[in-house]
Queue: 3 jobs
Job 1
Amino acid sequence: MMGVDYQQLECILRVKLTMDNRRGFSTSTKKTDSSNQLLLQSFVYAIIGVFIGILIDSMDHTFTAYTMVFSMIMVMIAMLMISEFSVVLIDTRDNAILLSRPINSRTMTMAKLLHIAIYLLHLSLSLSIASLFFTVIDYGIVAGFLFLFMVFLSTLFTLFLTNLFYLGLMRFVNGEKLKDIMVYFQIGMAIIFMGAYQLLPRLIEVNDLYNSQIKVEWFTYLIPSCWFAGSITALTTSVYSLSSILFVLLALFVPLVSLWLIIKYLSPKFSQRLSQMDAVASKPEKRKTQKAHRLRYSDKLAQLLTQSSVERTSFKMIWKMSGRERKFKQTAFPAFGYIFVFIALMVVKDFGNEDKIASLLASKRYLLFIYFIIFAAFAVCMNIIYSDEPKSSWFYSSMPISKPGDILSGTIKALLAKYVWPLYVIIGGPILYFWSYKALPDLLYALVSITVITSFVTVMQSKALPFSKERLSQDSGDNFIKGILMMISAGLIGLTHWGLTYIEYGVMLGLPIMLAFQYLSFRYIKRINWKQIED
């Protein structure tokens, strides 16, 4: 009746779902051949849903409890849709197979909609299964069915908002830029989850949360999660006031209208944008101007920090490629956000207490802040050797390079100059402001220490050329041991610095020694030969 070829639809969906089941988490650093990835994801989301569902049983105010539950579920669905499913949603490679076949546009559109609907159903049910359990236990089976229906409606509305988000981005950026934005969104989501897990329990009093109540005001009707919470509250409390009737009407009609808009306008528009986005490009003049600016900056740094032509070329190559490799950014960049989370954890407990703040400023605790940078340095240096296309590293052996150590030296210097030292300036600036000039010797010593430990540990953990090893070759057990050794080495060098602060002029006397270690470390790296390089 809808003009859809059912056999073609079934065939397309079967292949899409099979591929979904083989695709791991987008934040995974290791590929896998497992054919049960959807089951694994469902289990992980169900565990997360337990922490959401506990609110129903713990909070006294029903409307507030369900408002928070639906808010969390909708936010999680939207974020996971953008971070996990965007890889599949904006992938146009299947057009090479489908567009050359006698498949009409309605069949392809319906296949895409059903694919999204199945994924959303799996996602929303996994997140809400614990909330459903608590709803049935506390309010009965009828309330449980209503809760499931409201989850379905809230998912439809979230899909509508997600479509608007994608279409808005596609209007201003092309395909490659959109994929870059998705990667940064995934990085941001990882940092937000980490920060929320660590900071929220310390900022929120549990008793205040459980006893809190949301009052119905005029702006409450503009909050989608309140619509669904108000509908369930009306059933469980048997109070059908004007506000509850309005919530029910909004919960029923707005998602259904949004579904109609998706099918009628947004989905065809999305498909049109998707087919055109690879052809859309930015203005060439602007791109050339920005590119020239970046090259001048990296060229100056390369001339300043490198000695041989091979080292200089390696520096420039890593400077460019590290900014283009999405998987590298996806695995390494979250560590930069975690550093600020750890710093906030150490400061937030003293915030608001003048005595504790004064004690903090009188202490040497800023040494911990600055040495947290080591974790970001390890993250970028450990991940720079991996690539999804390791065979493209054949050009290393095709060139007349006598000392591959120059490549490693240029790589480390590029990563330090592009990622580690700017982070040092961002953290060191506030330290110099709050602790004044007295912290300057410590900052200089820490900068050299971080450079030395990064170069030493990077080479010792793996003598591999950048982007030359496949991610499948990553050994989680080996990485865990390396991580422990790195943390121990970072702790030892930090403790050494802390001990020198108790010796008069100890830091300034130790600075020349660390500079000598820095010179020796790069001298050792440059002497690495081809026999020492890992395949």
Job 2
Amino acid sequence: MMPNVSRGDRMAGLMTYLVGKGRANEHTEPHLVAGDDALMVWHDDAELGDDAARSIARHLDRPRTSYGVEVPGGHVWHASLSLRAEEGMRTDAEWGAIARDFVTAMGFDDNEGTKAPCRWVAVRHGVSKAGNDHIHIAVNLVRDDGTKASIHHDFHRAQTAARALEVKYGLEQLESTKGERSTRGYSPAEQARVQDSAAKFAEKKYQQQVERSGEPMPSWAELDGKERQARVAAEVRLNVPRNDLARSVRGAATSADNEAEFVRRMRRTGLLVRPRFADGRTDVVTGYSVAARPEAGQRPIWYGGGHLGRDLTLPRLREGWPDTPTRATDAAAEWSAAKRGRRIVAPGRESHEPDPELWTRYTREIGKLRDKLRSVPIDDRETWQSVARQTAGAFAAWSNAVESEPGDLAAAADALSKSAQTFRRPVQPQRAGLASVGGAAMLLASATRGGQGPAAQAALLRQLMNLSGAIYDAAKASGEARQAALLATDVRERLTHVRQGLASSTSTSNTATATATRPTTQTRAIVDEAVQEALAKIDRGQDACKGKTSSPVPDPIEPVKPRTTTRPGADRGPER
């Protein structure tokens, strides 16, 4: 059960909205399921109208108006308690009991006769647009004796109360709490901005699926309405502007070997970047924000790293980069250049073509890393969070390089990123044991600029799918069924589409005449062998998401970080 808490100062406005038609005419038969004793004497469960809403608002507001008490931030405390559509519907009696227990847990009642109670009401008006059964609770924070109710840490207390109510009433328990995960939600405005385009993307991708299958399938118009809605909702999540930015930042962070390179890679993807300096300093960066380039005449919309994802705050990102004597100085120079819109200070490896031999090296190292993960215990959250973040970053970098609009790679990156976002920072700094995944992200970020083509990408994809399988195993073993199901669909199934496309490209390239520089014969043989092995395993039906994590004794995950070299150059011109 998800509580959503907000504050305001217009009780009449809130009540009028709750008994109205709703933003999408989704409200039906608004009525009370619970409230303070005096209120429930006058109102039963009959359908409410505007007159009843104003009467209830006057009753709730009376202590504040009588005593003339002002509450900073607003005296109207509002919370919605929502169930997933898959959980079905609850009765009015059940919602009434849940509402009363929730108000007690929040401390808005009489505290067993030691305080004057707050006036409150719980309204039910049908399911949401997404089909979620829910209620709304409105509370006047001014108690009947004119004192103010405490709202200290009310967001956290609401979450704690919801977890207790899930157990008491047999509701589905929130998996992210058990897994200590926490992702940012979407505001209605964010989703509304992309609703129309998401519907077009969903229809276009369904048509592509029909063409790939080669079997008779219903047209988009003939699809069941719920399936169409689910497909559109998935595209909304992919195309929310904040998600696009998070994907670009995550790909740049994973591909980068240091903070200065991170700034340069973000700028190369077209993002606007600005640092947040420490007070009175211009050489100490404490955070950052990014924005997409706006259309002509519009202002950019900025998002801080922490609002993009809990794993994308600057302190957490710094844990994954080596600490060198010049790290802070080099990074500060690039941050300052980005803020002022000047050209990059010192171009690095992101401006050069990677060594072709690295494709083979990183493919093999990721395979060894997957073997080591078999011995990592499920409760080692720091390791699994790091693996998920790096793997999500690799797919994000690949998506940024080859997908003109969010597709299968973007969906895989987003699904994996949910396993990477923990609400607590790791107790110990992240060890440099995932350099091979970061190297893979660096290679995939340059996928459109050459490399070894589809064959090498397919071999690397195989190993990244195996890492995703390990994350799936960990989620399933931890009892996080919903996250495991998301990984199975938005990672395994979508990456199978990517694999099929790479296999087709590899077959075509083997019969075509070579028109560009090719890797050495030895390297090509190694890559072809790896590709054939990967495709054979998948075709034999060996599920990449069914590895085992049997041993309780972890081995240190510290593969040697490969040394990479770049050709010297004098690329100090404007950014590309």
Job 3
Amino acid sequence: MNPLSEGSSENWYSDETEISLALNDLYRTYLWDFETNYTTERMSDNWTQRQAIDAFAAGSINSEWSRSEDLWLNTYKGITRANTILNSLDNAQGRVSEAKVKQLAGEAHFMRAVFYARLIFYYGDVPYYTGYLSIDEAFDLGRTDKNIILENVYKDFDAAIESLPVSYGSNELNRATKGAALAFKARTALNMSDWAVARDAAKACMDLDVYSLHPDYEEYFYSRTRNSAETIFALPRSFELGSSWTAKNFYTRTAGGSSVAQPSWDLFCAYPCTDGLPIDESPLFDPCNPFDNRDPRCKMTFVEFGTEHLGFIYDPNPYTTKVLNVSTGKKVNNKDTRSVDTYASYNGLTLKKGVDEDWTDDNETDFDIRIMRYADVLLMYAEAKIELGEIDASVLEAINSVRARAYGVGVSDVSAFPAIAATDQVQLRKELRNERRIEFAWENRRFDDLLRWRLAEKALTRPIYGLLDPNDLKEKVIDKELWFFPGVPEIDEDWLVDFSSMYSEGVIKQLVERNFDKDRQYLFPIPSKEIMINKNLTQNPNY
């Protein structure tokens, strides 16, 4: 019996409105939680939150970890809805045009592919089904080999690619397209180290010739930037439609925010100098002026000290107890230094990327949730070719196009930016990986990269560092003219930073330890609730 509050598969999905309503649910943010609100950034080495740490980075997750429970439950909700749509489309025959049915089926295939791809990446083998399940059948379903699921995921993507249009028009940003299906197929293949599939899907997306890099990197992330040619798939927010996001935790205290979390020192040190070299190799790096001579995305991601931000001069120096209110011309208490406000940034840094005045008027913003953009396709194509050993001019052009955009120049103007010219696979892999990190900082991409590159066991076992407490900071750093960085940290072969020498000298503070467990955390735990009700469902190792 079907609940009276819901349409059944027998009497629902019979016209375009009903099918579209069902599909619309698959675009709701609760199904895309790992892509929103900096969720996976919190679990990566891009994140600092005073002296708190996410359970994943702390190594304390178990089979009752709420984030895994929610991800599992919501992803299977999406799969079930996509299955129901695909298995009910016959109801629309004769009532909806064949072309429209094809497009709607394409969207459902796309969603099912994305959701199963997510599950096999985070959990490995998982229950797989494409039809209707009774309660008893659901409780008896075991785990299917992830490689079998992957082949079916590719089939779903291919069905979506064949069925979906290249575009719908400027007002349909939220609907899946042919380009989105190709791009997500590439991402899935990259996550599964299926390099040839990733290469071909990314190249096919590029060959659609409908996407391009937004001219201005910084501008792209503001809420006012809508429907950019760089955006391949996004979930739109809109104040008019009652969809916004609470931003208070992520902007400065002087401007009215709470500054709960900051981009990490690890991320700050990842940006190369303008000669393309890491900060421990470049003669251009000055630890007392660490924003100078850096890749332009550094100043676009972090607020530079002494500059205006959200109407105030930003300066975390504990001696700077007053700062200028730019609009009034008067000095106000500097709540962004810990000598004035205990809860100011513990590492002195604050987020600039995407932050603008619309965050401060009511602590709400409605920027689009960008889940796939063209820069990612370019770098996925380059990575797949590098791993295949197919290093050619197209690889360098893909990477350099992304980097050149950051410098505001054309890719051919190699004298105006540090163009990558390396053809050695090891060196190019290192450059590509760091390019991804700084290009997609605080866009929920770093966490997945750490998992698939098997770098989490290094990046997430190093401590999180920050500034000394105010009095010690004044005495040991500022009074000795060592502000801001009291030294040059070491950058290793994976472009990961090592602060141990600075810490041993007593000039920085360890905020909290990371304890990623490589013997279990490369896969998430199956929620214990699922194990308890299904005798055929086994747990991942060491949980």
